[in-house]
């Protein structure tokens, strides 16, 4: 699975807010096709790390490379175009838009038709629109949401909203997909289905996935490797088995939950 150049290389990355080092000196490498977990206690810096990878925050130390290209200081939309998409801990859909429009918003920048042809409703607009509809429906089908395509996003049950957020992130055609607690608030059945789905889309779209998740059996069951943050620092990395038995991890966070 691994090639010599990592898809993502994080080199000594950190950020300080006032006196607080929320993330400090983190090194990580993700290789094409890997599904990697990012765990750690509350406040460990996991979401901040995602914010650094996606340009929401600019690192105060270190650098981030995607396929060897520096991402530092690029704004979030440029990083999305370079191939990193994400979901959020708290769902951020366009709640008043339809399910299909939520996907099309993400897909828009990849579509062939231009803003001018949209405004004047030129023939190119309609063919472009149709292609976008078809593509969006393809994504919705994968997530079993095509039957709700005209429903407002806010009217979907919670678990489906979470799946729609992933569909939207995928529609931006990422190489690296960052999922921030995608199973939060889901029941065990929904969670199991979601994990199967994540494994499926990783294969289907040749994706690399980095997953923040608090549900340990879930992380251990689905991830190839796991990174562990504590107080902003990387305290361990390894296979689920190695992490489960790592004394530092047990001490920092997991305790009996994992042993
Ligand atoms: N913009 C900010 N300004 C100041 N402090 C911040 C900012 N963003 C995050 N922090 C702080 O950085 C630390 C790490 O927070 P972060 O949300 O990344 O942790 P987390 O591991 O994602 O936690 P959780 O599992 O609870 O979501 C916390 O102490 C948080 O208060």
Automatic annotation (TrEMBL):
<dbReference type="GO" id="GO:0042941">
    <property type="term" value="P:D-alanine transmembrane transport"/>
</dbReference>
<feature type="domain" description="ABC transporter">
    <location>
        <begin position="8"/>
        <end position="256"/>
    </location>
</feature>
<dbReference type="InterPro" id="IPR032823">
    <property type="entry name" value="BCA_ABC_TP_C"/>
</dbReference>
<dbReference type="GO" id="GO:0015808">
    <property type="term" value="P:L-alanine transport"/>
</dbReference>
<dbReference type="InterPro" id="IPR051120">
    <property type="entry name" value="ABC_AA/LPS_Transport"/>
</dbReference>
<dbReference type="GO" id="GO:0015188">
    <property type="term" value="F:L-isoleucine transmembrane transporter activity"/>
</dbReference>
<keyword id="KW-0067">ATP-binding</keyword>
<dbReference type="Pfam" id="PF12399">
    <property type="entry name" value="BCA_ABC_TP_C"/>
</dbReference>
<dbReference type="InterPro" id="IPR003593">
    <property type="entry name" value="AAA+_ATPase"/>
</dbReference>
<dbReference type="InterPro" id="IPR003439">
    <property type="entry name" value="ABC_transporter-like_ATP-bd"/>
</dbReference>
<keyword id="KW-0547">Nucleotide-binding</keyword>
<dbReference type="Pfam" id="PF00005">
    <property type="entry name" value="ABC_tran"/>
</dbReference>
<keyword id="KW-0813">Transport</keyword>
<dbReference type="GO" id="GO:0016887">
    <property type="term" value="F:ATP hydrolysis activity"/>
</dbReference>
<dbReference type="GO" id="GO:1903805">
    <property type="term" value="P:L-valine import across plasma membrane"/>
</dbReference>
<protein>
    <submittedName>
        <fullName>ABC transporter ATP-binding protein</fullName>
    </submittedName>
</protein>
<dbReference type="GO" id="GO:0005886">
    <property type="term" value="C:plasma membrane"/>
</dbReference>
<dbReference type="GO" id="GO:0005304">
    <property type="term" value="F:L-valine transmembrane transporter activity"/>
</dbReference>
<dbReference type="InterPro" id="IPR027417">
    <property type="entry name" value="P-loop_NTPase"/>
</dbReference>
<dbReference type="GO" id="GO:1903806">
    <property type="term" value="P:L-isoleucine import across plasma membrane"/>
</dbReference>
<dbReference type="GO" id="GO:0005524">
    <property type="term" value="F:ATP binding"/>
</dbReference>
<dbReference type="GO" id="GO:0015192">
    <property type="term" value="F:L-phenylalanine transmembrane transporter activity"/>
</dbReference>
């Amino acid at each position: 699975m691994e090639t010599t150049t990592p898809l993502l290389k994080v080199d000594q990355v950190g950020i300080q807010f006032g006196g607080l080092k929320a993330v400090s000196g983190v090194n990580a490498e993700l290789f094409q096709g890997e599904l990697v977990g990012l765990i750690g206690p509350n406040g460990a810096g996991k979401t901040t790390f995602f914010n650094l990878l996606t340009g929401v925050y600019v690192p105060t130390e270190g650098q981030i490379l995607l396929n060897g290209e520096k991402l530092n200081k690029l704004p979030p939309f440029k990083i999305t175009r370079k191939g990193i998409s994400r979901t959020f801990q708290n769902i951020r859909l366009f709640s008043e838009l339809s399910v299909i429009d939520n996907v099309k918003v993400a897909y828009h920048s990849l579509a062939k038709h231009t803003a001018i042809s949209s405004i004047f409703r030129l023939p190119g607009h309609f063919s472009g629109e149709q292609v976008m509809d078809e593509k969006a429906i393809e994504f919705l089908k994968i997530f079993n949401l095509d039957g709700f395509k005209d429903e407002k996003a806010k009217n979907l049950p919670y678990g489906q909203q979470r799946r729609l957020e992933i569909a939207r992130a995928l529609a931006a055609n990422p190489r690296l997909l960052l999922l921030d607690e995608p199973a939060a608030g889901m029941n065990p059945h929904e969670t199991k289905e979601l994990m199967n789905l994540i494994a499926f889309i990783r294969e289907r779209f040749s994706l690399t996935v980095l997953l923040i998740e608090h549900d340990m059996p879930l992380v251990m069951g689905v991830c190839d490797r796991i990174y562990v943050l504590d107080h902003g620092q990387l305290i361990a990395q390894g296979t689920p088995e190695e992490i489960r038995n790592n004394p530092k991890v047990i001490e920092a966070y997991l305790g009996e939950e994992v042993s």
